[in-house]
Each structure stands twice: as C-alpha cells, then as structure tokens.
Request: fold
Amino acid sequence: MKHIVSIEQCDEQDILRILDRAALFEANPNRHLMDGMVGATLFFEPSTRTRLSFETAVNRLGGRVIGFSDPKSSSSTKGESLKDTLLIVSNYADVIIMRHYLEGAALYATEVSPVPIVNAGDGANQHPSQTLLDLYTIRSTQGSLEDLHIVMVGDLRFGRTIHSLIEGMRFFSPRFTFVAPPELRLPEEYRQYCDEHHLRYEETSLFTPEVIADADILYMT
Reply:
C-alpha cells in the first residue's frame, strides 16, 4: 500500500519515472486501471481545480467517485472526528483523496486509514500532486529540469505549492529567487532546507523587470 503525503517521499528516479508515465497518460488518458474501484474525495477545504482534476482522473481510469466538496455537508459539523470519518469512508472506498486545512492532517490520516491516502493539500504544508504537475510542466516547456532559475513570487509563507516545489526540485540543481514582502517571506525551515541541500537562493522584496528577465520559470502565487 502506498500513501502520497509529501514530495519528500520521492527520490529523483521516482520523480522522473512518474513524469515519464504522465506523458503516456497525456497521450492516452482513458485507461481501465481502476475498473471496479471507488475513489473518495474528502475536501475539508474549498477547491475546484484540484478536486475536479482528481475526480476526472478516477473517471478516466474507469473508477467511480464518492465524497464531498463542502465540509458543511459532512458529519464533521456534528462533531465527528477526522479519525472516525476516515475509518467509515475507508469501508466504502479503495483510495481516499483528502484536502484538509490543518498541516499534518494527511500524515495523520495515513496512521489511521486502512486504504491509501493521497494528500491533495494540507494547510500551508504540502501539495505533492500539484508539485508533480509543476515539474511535468517545467520539463515539458524547458526540455529539462536541470540548472533552472526559478523565481517564486507572492505568498511564500503559507503557499504549500511553493514549499513542495522547493523540495521537488532538490535533485536538479535549481537556483531560486524568492520575491515577497517581509510578512510573507519564505519560512525559516525552508531556507534551512535549501542550505542543507545546497540549493542556491536569494531573497528580495522587489519584483523588478530585471528579476523577471533573468527567470527561466516565473512561479506566481
């Protein structure tokens, strides 16, 4: 059984293998890998694109979808714990795709759920599926993931896609420029992460034409 909680789970070969497989699915998206299976989408936080992307994927793979997109329609409004929700839904589904507003909720879910958990975003922490999509897009447009200058702009403090992409790029010798006002600057733990993995970066609060011109990828949040 495999859970997908963080892009940190993937080494370089995992990432490249997934991206190569994604290219095959892009060319032929309608498969039958989930025939007879049910995917549950539990979205405790509002979402349109991520939820519909996962539901489309399950349908294209031949599976069926159950779940909710509004936490107000779930039993959590009556005081049901996340653990109880997961245990109940796991009786109905073969995989649970969950978005939650609390950091660490996806990891907690893997400890209580008997079926695989896919993290569709947990608070300001991680968004691994979005990172894989970002890596696929970057490689498709640039021809490679190696030695790119990636300029990340906006909410770097709470932006989970930012945090995941930094970790996802760690194998490919990127150079980062982090552009944010002081109150939204990258958290210290991710600056330490860059240092520990020898990832080059600089920080600025000025979003100038020169910064834009020097970028291979401009990542806006």
